[in-house]
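Figure S7 source data.
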Amino acid sequence: MIEYRNVRVALLGGGTVGAQVARLLLEHKEEFASRVGASLELTGIAVRNLDAPRSADLPKELFTTDAESLILGADIVIEVMGGLEPARSYILQAINSGADVVTANKALLATHGTELFEAAERVGAQLYFEAAVAGAIPIIRPLRESLAGDRVKRIMGIVNGTTNYILDKMDTEGASFEDALAVATELGYAEADPTADIDAFDAAQKASILASLAFHTTIPLEKVHREGIREVTGKTVELAKKAGYVVKLLAICERLIDPETGEEAVSARVYPALISREHPLASVHKANNAVFVEAEAAGSLMFYGAGAGGPETASAVLGDLVSAARRHIIGGPGLGASTNANLLVLPISTITTRYHVTLSVYDRPGVLASVADVFGRHGVSVELVEQGTFGSEAVSGEAAPTATLVIGTHAALESDLASTVSALAQLDAVSSVVSVLRVEGA
Ligand SMILES: NC(=O)C1=CN([C@@H]2O[C@H](COP(=O)(O)OP(=O)(O)OC[C@H]3O[C@@H](n4cnc5c(N)ncnc54)[C@H](OP(=O)(O)O)[C@@H]3O)[C@@H](O)[C@H]2O)C=CC1
Ligand SMILES: N[C@@H](CC=O)C(=O)O
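Tokens for the predicted NDP complex:
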């Protein structure tokens, strides 16, 4: 029988992810020991409520509400509590007491990442965060290590499982937004406050982490352009489907040239966009995520898999735990911070892409010409016009016939498109601007 050294592991959080981390750690104790060369001893699980039901059958005596004492005796601390505080203070306490830290907390990293990485660097500790982006998918390690010798040009992906689940259910089953969100929450995909998912805060946090790693710079969360899926209605999804598209919440991070200075810059943005049904991202269903990485030498790489869920995310957490435990046994410097540039983050107004503008217009002669004129006057070139469903609307007590008009543009500058849409909204012929969606992944 091999006598293994003991590595003490403290777990902060026993919810969707934490309970599964604890279960797998206890169930596969022997395997972890032989893989790491040390016995991983789960010393406790810090929670708020000792009596709350858990998704796994775990020994009651492991649970505590005293996170600080738990951290004191630990070699490695796993933080899967979520939120900014007390998670930030606990991680700082762990780092300062000499422990390495594994976290799945993208909100914390995107907000206080610099402080935490600097604290870790000061004392030679390591911060692992594979689970913070795209659940089970290994994407942090490839960006941090495998592609460290290459130059990443662009990342485009679906990085939020909850919104993908909702949009997919709306597209494939005609489900309502509310019903789909309720199921996603029930399945443990959504954040404690699901507005983090719906309003794309979660995806923006992930974009900030991905872009900072990929471009070796710091992309503050507030510089990530963010639009959520609240405005995406069943009608928008249906019209997209008819036109051969699917609506997906995309995160896009890319190297660009600053049009003002000609210097290299970057863009990081998150918004719902139309993707052709032929595009590989269109077949990312349910809570799955997919991330395309385009690098100078490697070319195009695609990472795909479960983006959320307890066991799925626990897999990424435990992969980090094994790395941290091996470092604890063998020693070594670990990965340093790789920031070597301070690149300008371009505002959304400077981005160029294609658009679909859907209008409800009064069905009368000359409407098409007046709409086309607005696009022309703002320098936006029209690629296609499709007339959709007909209806009617009461105007001054009279029923006025209306029609849906979908105008697809060639690549146009965001600021030109924005002024076009403002002018369209003022046009007599236009009853309402139904939706404006960018078209990506041509
Ligand atoms: N769920 C998912 O699919 C994914 C989640 N993540 C991230 O993982 C982290 C955890 O998520 P998840 O497991 O879903 O969250 P849950 O809300 O399911 O679980 C949070 C856990 O932390 C405990 N907790 C919260 N606040 C405190 C506190 N102040 N003191 C002690 N314990 C506390 C809770 O205790 P109690 O049980 O008593 O309430 C609970 O056990 C988050 O950062 C999330 O963004 C990342 C990828 C995917
Ligand atoms: N709420 C998140 C969970 C994983 O990060 C999501 O839906 O993707």
